[in-house]
Amino acid sequence: MGFLEDAKHNAEDAVKKAGQAVEDTVDKAKDKVDELRAEADVKRAEAERDAVKARNDVKDELRDK
C-alpha cells in the first residue's frame, strides 16, 4: 500500500504544480495585455494632443491674417 499512496501523493503534487503553472501563465498573459492596452492608450492620447495642437496652430495663423 505504501507504493500506491506515494504514487497518489506524487500525482497530486504534479497536478497542483501543473495547475499553478497554468495560472502563472494566464496571469502573465493578462499582465501583458494590460501593458499593451496602456501603451496604446498613451499613444492615442499623444496623437490626440498633437492633433489638437496642430488644429490650434492653424486657427492661430488664420486669426493673425
Which bin fits the share of residues in helices?
Answer: over 70%
**Major beta-sheet overview:** none
Strand content: under 5%
Question: How large is the radius of gyration?
Answer: 28 Å
What is the straight-line distance between the termini?
96 Å
Low-pLDDT segments, ≥5 res: none
What's the multimeric state?
A: single chain
Task: Report the structural category.
Answer: mainly alpha
Q: Shape from CA axes?
A: rod-shaped
Chain-wise SSE layout:
Blueprint lengths: L1 H63 L1
Keywords:
mainly alpha; 0% strand
Please provide a written account of the structure.
The chain is rod-shaped. It is an all-alpha fold. Helices cover 97% and strands 0% of the residues.
Summarize the structure.
With 65 residues, the chain is mainly α.
